[in-house]
Amino acid sequence: MFAKKKQNGDVILGLFNYNGSASQTIVFTPTGSFSTPGTVTAYLPLSAGSNTVEFSDASAYAPDLNGITVSQ
Fold this sequence. Notes:
Strand content: 25-35%
Order of helices and strands: EEEEEE
Strand order of the largest sheet: 4-1-6
Number of strands: 6
Number of helices: 0
Distance between the termini: 15 Å
Radius of gyration: 13 Å
Largest sheet: 3 strands, antiparallel
């Protein structure tokens, strides 16, 4: 996952769940600039075929995602 970070250096916490699982927290470390994306790796046990992945944050804006890579 690639996410843009807050410029002031605050860590952004995001929530994700997949296929109806309980939400898990992922930490997006600041990069210092909205124009400098960072990379975060999360391992999700997805099933063959269709899957649903949801990103959110109940207390603030979720990180801006500009790409997701799925590999085996």
